[in-house]
Design a protein that fits this description.
6% of the residues lie in helices and 41% in strands. The chain is mostly beta strands and 337 residues long.
Amino acid sequence: MTAHDPARQTAAQAFTELPDLAAERFGGEVIAANDDFFAPKESLVKAGKPEWREGEYTDRGKWMDGWETRRRRSPGHDWAIVKLGIPGIVRGVVIDTSYFTGNFPEHASIDACAVDGTLPGDRMARDDIPWKPLLAKSPLEGDALNPFGIDGAERVTHLRLNIFPDGGVARLRVHGEVVPDERMFAEGAAVDLAAMANGGFVVSCSDMHYGNRQNLIIPGRSTHMGDGWETKRRRGPGHDWSIIRLARRGVIERIELDTDHFKGNAPGSAMLESCDVSGSFDADSAKWEPLLPQTPLDADAQHRWSDLPARPATHVRLNIYPDGGVARLRLFGRATG
């Protein structure tokens, strides 16, 4: 795969730490495209990395893992519309042309809009939708990750990927900051204050050798051992930890911690602490207070605790002893001012 220059790759690393707002598992989907003759539009937001199948063909041509339009014989360009699974502010996109070598678009641009409710694809394709430019027409490389940082964006719900003039794109990743519907916090009901879909974010951890820390707060139950947060085996003193920035300052009323699929590698015990920070967050200077005392954990099991201190928090630190894997962490509570 073609490599980009180091400066561009370094810049991309910053925004790719943010959630993929278009991810299939968050509910992202491609709802319309003007053409997908060779490869289906839905593949743009598939979870896995693109794959290559040597010698495999369909009745329309070479099998490709992505979205691919026919060769254009008239003026214009091709496009696909993506409904974000989570609305938010886009900070960067990756237009992945993996395995598209002689059939990738020369350029691409992206438009964005924010609409209320759920509109069907044919409605979103009409001319009266208030699209605004998000990414100007930019050159693409074939068989490459094409990262582009985005500045000054607003909250959006849909994107339109334009390719010039035609061709194939394997994946579209849309990294940004989650901006949920504020009504969920104002209605007084208990919500998962840690959930990524609500605006929670795992800001740091001691180690994530086997599983990404963000897996702790993604939607749904884990599907396998690699779908959680897992550290390497600790060979010295100490313990592992992850720090979650809550979606909103709030009082946590219930904790749910799952060690699903972690059977010979679940932590022996866990402890949670919280802090209430009004300004910039610094883990070392924050005043951490116990939320849940150190408690034994069972392997491959769901754990629930509810008798918790009733105090506001902005961040929670999950400590596991000494190491191991946790599939999911849910922190249900009510937002405060």
